[in-house]
Amino acid sequence: MNETKKNRLTWKIGGKAGEGIMATGIIFSQSCSRGGLHVYDINEYPSLIKGGHNTLQVRVEDREIFSQVRGVNILIALNKETIILHKDEIVDGGGIICDISDAIDRKELRENIRIYPIPFTDIIKEINAQAIMKNNVALGASIALVDYDFEVVVQVIKDTFKRKGASIIDENTKAAKAGYDFIKKNFKDDFEYRLEKIGEKSRMLLTGNDAICIGAIKTGCKFYSAYPMTPASSILHFMAAQERRFNIVVKHTEDEISAINMAIGAGFAGVRAMCGTSGGGFCLMTEGYGLAGMIEVPIVVILSMRPGPSTGMPTWSEQGDLKFAMSASQGDFPRPILVPGDNEECFYMTMEAFNLAEKYQTPVIVLSDKNLAESHKTTEKFDSGRISIDRGAYASPSELAASPDTTFFKRYRFTENGISPRTIPGTKKGIYSAASDEHDEEGNITELSDNRIKMMQKRARKMDALVREIKQPELKGPIDADVTVIFAGSTKGPVREAIFTLEKEGIKVNYLQITYLNPFPSEKVSNVIDSARKIVVAENNFTGQLCDIIREKTGKSIAHKILKYDGRPFYPEEIHAAIKEVVSHG
Amino acid sequence: MVKMTDLNTIDKPNWCPGCGDFGILVALKGAIIELNIEPENVAIISGIGCSGKVPHWVRTYGLHGIHGRALPVASATKLSNHELTVFAVGGDGDGYGIGMCHFIHAMRRNINMTYIVHNNMIYGLTTGQTSPTSEKGMRTKSTPSGVIEVPVNPIALAISSGATFVARSFAGDVKHLQKTIVDAVKHRGFSLVDVFQQCVSYNHINTYDWYKQRVYDLTTVGHDPADKMKAFARAQEWGDHIPIGVFYKVLTPTYEDELPQIKDVPLVKQAIDKIDVSGLMDDFV
After folding, report:
1. A contacts of B45 (beta carbons < 8 Å)
2. Residue B268: closest C-alpha in chain A
3. Burial of A442 per CB tally in 10 Å (0-12, 13-18, 19+)
4. What is the Cα–Cα distance from B29 to B263, expressed in whole angstroms?
5. How far is B200 from chain A (nearest CA, A)?
6. Domain spanning A206-379 has what CATH number?
7. Fewest CB atoms less than 10 Å from the CB: which of A73, A134, A525, B198?
8. What is the ipTM of this complex?
9. Counting beta carbons within 10 angstroms of the beta carbon of residue A73, is it exposed (0 to 12), middle (13 to 18) or buried (19 or more)?
10. Subunit contact B40:A266, Cβ cutoff 8 A
11. Is B73–A272 a contact, with Cβ atoms under 8 angstroms apart?
12. Across the interface, do A266 and B101 touch by the CB < 8 Å criterion?
């Protein structure tokens, strides 16, 4: 068969919320991943529980892939609406699996699109299963169509439902098998797109949120507080599910104000603490965020962006909180902001965030977005030994011994790098009171001019030290590129995919990924802009916030912006087209 | 033995002369001494307002946070190191106004800590506006024609919200207040000590004399704190005779009791350098 049609396809399932779209999709993704294939999936769903239109789109290849692409090879339509909404996404030779009663008139489809109508109701009745099992029948049918190893799917079903017991596993398996058999029996084996197992299970299939949680747990996060908010909720679910396995206290609080203040209480007590939310929740957290900055309590805040303003589009993706995060809360204080772009970075940068928070005694934000938070990607297991734990400066026994019994310990001592060795409650002779008011070295409130200047400078010096520590971003790709792309966060995936295609067309592109919004790598970005032939910035927001930040930090304007703000992440094709446009006309 | 000098600070309180806060400070320090808790094992967490300054004038660990948020901070400090004796301190505006949401939820949780509320029925530090406990009709800077709302009843609210130790005391009776705080700390669970306190600068109605003439001790009338319905009834008393003392007390499991992850070792003392996540990663393969 044609090699370009083997192990290279996009499988999409659509239907009403509550029909098991996500569950079925994850079983498909996991089945491919376990066969040694690479997977990237992306979900689209409205903010409601039952009904509405949901999809999960799974891209599978035999090489590492970084994002979704346009073009669907198999569409599983659990209702007619799915066919109508997505038929034009189907590529030539692709097919639709749907209920026999939903099958639309052939004339409404392009000629080279196949349709595989399945009598779901009859099959379900025959195997004596619940109506909801329709999704598994369809899943089995799609496995037959691409001629993939059904035994892998059986095993994934077994593992997925192991907690629900043998009868649930059996019902799911029977349904998938019935769909599989129906296709094998009733249709010619001539579907062009095929999947073939190329290896054994070894890679993880997980989301950015999963990676953040594993990183947090590995690095000793002992306290997690949050109020549910998409797309950060799955962090709360993950941490709560693991709290007894790893001895973590996880608190679903009454609101986000409580969540961040609890994290501060835990950080003050000396444990590694984290809270997580999205933009609206972070609005409520900002006062606490400033408190952590003022009293120099280490905490990590996961800010997972979704489209605003206000409730915005709760279940969709955007990168519109860049400037908000950079200036959240009143006054000036060190606000490190880390921006991971993929699962590996979610894991390692979360660990790094905890180290930075404790080392520099300040709140650290990990800025993510829905696209990164909820999309699954096959990922090599993390090297959990790569980043060692750094608890920062604690007061030494001799320092404590020298502290008089009549005063507070100099918890906010003026030091060269601004970092004052800390103590935690329970430490003899380390007693101090933290003040949200401006304070002196002992934490006593003071409004004296001289102290204010010294204390502001002390806190600011921590940022100077941090600037020296962090890794500058590297320009990746050919040095003599025609175009240089700058971006931050999950835009990394589609940019890499676009570059992959452009290279094949002879267009040389390199890229600079901003992984720290603060401290911003101004010098590096400035040099890259100066030496690049053409600069393009790609970002998921309306105003071009990253471009604004670049201009603020480097004084340089960006001529070519690729902006997208419809709630959907970039498709590589869009970046590809925009770069080609810049190359030919820009 | 812990002595008063161990708890004294160089900085001296800067409350207005005659403020009820002085009585609360003395009683709090007295309670710590009476209970003989080493100062390094005490954490006093406050919000904003005149009451918020307490942590600066007791030589124990302290955190003077932001307005209304003492309870979440204190709750997590306790959960992170339950070997500490944790006090949350606030005023009526801090705790029953801006922090009301946390107040109710903290009581539901029954974390073993003591919440002392300096209740003077006025906003002091912001120079005299109405508070959630100001009486209906009270004229203040923000209610020149009189308060329209009815006041919050913190005692009744606490009894119904799950607090397991609910008491009221009076800053003008330091002996009673100290005993109440000692009992509150000894109680295993969330303890509320609502403290009547005069604001000499901005509340000229609910003065020291006003309280002094009205308060009576619940022990003098044979009140049984185990009786929830009677506690409710006592909580409704207002006017010429206002009860102080322990309204309600019950022993139920604390929040910490329900957390096996801190049963053996407090969170802060758990090693974090050898956490193995390989099994966790395997779950995703």
Report:
1. 265
2. A271
3. buried
4. 30
5. 23
6. 3.40.50.970
7. A525
8. 0.98
9. buried
10. no
11. no
12. no
pTM above 0.90, yes or no: yes
Chain A nearest-CA distance from B185, in A, is 17
CATH code of domain B4-255:
3.40.50.970
CATH topology of domain A3-202: Pyruvate-ferredoxin Oxidoreductase; domain 3 (3.40.920)
Spatial contact of A95 and A115, defined as CB atoms under 8 Å apart:
yes
Closest residue in A to B264 (Cα) is A247
Q: What are the residue ranges of CATH 3.40.50.920 in chain A?
A: 475-585
Q: Compare CB distances from B40 to A34, A218, A427 and report the shortest one's residue.
A: A427
Work out how many CB contacts closer than 8 A connect A with B: 202
Query: Span A475-585: which CATH code?
Result: 3.40.50.920
* Residue B260: exposure state from Cβ atoms within 10 A (0-12, 13-18, ≥19): exposed
Strands A221-226 and A114-118, by their bridges, are unpaired
B75 min Cα distance to partner chain A (Å): 7
Please report, as a single letter, which amino acid is at residue A37: L
Per-residue pLDDT of chain A (586 residues; tens, 9 = 90+): 466 789 999 999 999 988 899 999 999 999 999 999 999 999 998 888 887 899 999 999 999 999 999 999 999 999 999 999 999 999 999 999 999 999 888 888 999 999 999 999 999 999 999 999 999 999 999 999 999 999 999 999 999 999 999 999 999 999 999 999 999 999 999 999 999 999 998 999 999 999 999 999 999 999 999 999 999 999 999 999 999 999 999 999 999 999 999 999 999 999 999 999 999 999 999 999 999 999 999 999 999 999 999 999 999 999 999 999 999 999 999 999 999 999 999 999 999 999 999 999 999 999 999 999 999 999 999 999 999 999 999 999 999 999 998 899 999 999 999 999 999 999 999 999 999 999 999 999 999 999 999 999 999 999 999 999 988 999 999 999 999 999 999 999 999 999 999 999 999 999 999 999 999 999 999 999 999 999 999 999 999 999 999 999 999 999 999 999 999 999 999 999 999 999 998 6
